[in-house]
């Protein structure tokens, strides 16, 4: 996949992660994209490392999308744990 495909995959994975974990998160579209792209890489690494399932380079591969969404969820939860209580109301 090229870099544009990873950005699109990350954007969609980040949006899905935010839908699955609703709540107040700063960052908007750019934050969602960054969490999603980083989550795609983290999910791919976790899939290859712990599940012994390397990620395919195909954009429409289901396990690639699941790994990206899972990685985005992990990063979103970590982000909320680390930075969720630092904002004032």
How would you sum up this structure, described in words?
- With 89 residues, this protein is mainly α.
- 71% of the residues lie in helices and 0% in strands.
- The chain has 3 helices and no strands.
- The protein has helices spanning 3-20, 28-50, 62-83.
- Helix 1 packs across helix 2 (28-50), helix 1 packs across helix 3 and helix 2 crosses helix 3.
- It starts with a helix and ends in a 6-residue tail after the last helix.
- The relative contact order is 0.20.
- The mean pLDDT is 76.
Query: How would you sum up the global shape?
Result: globular
Give the termini distance in whole angstroms: 41 Å
Q: What can be said about the biggest beta sheet?
A: none
Gyration radius (Cα, Å) is 13 Å
Strand content: under 5%
Number of strands: 0
Order of helices and strands: HHH
Identify low-pLDDT runs. Answer: none
Structural class: mainly alpha
Mean pLDDT equals 76
Range of helix content: over 70%
Number of helical segments with 4 or more residues: 3
């Amino acid at each position: 996949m090229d870099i544009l495909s990873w950005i699109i995959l990350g954007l969609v994975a980040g949006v899905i992660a935010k839908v699955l974990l609703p709540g107040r998160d700063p960052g908007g579209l750019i934050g969602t994209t960054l969490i999603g792209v980083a989550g795609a890489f983290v999910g791919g690494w976790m899939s290859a490392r712990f599940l012994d399932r390397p990620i395919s380079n195909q954009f429409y591969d289901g396990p690639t999308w699941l790994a990206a969404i899972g990685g985005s969820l992990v990063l979103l939860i970590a982000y909320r744990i680390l930075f969720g209580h630092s904002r004032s109301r």
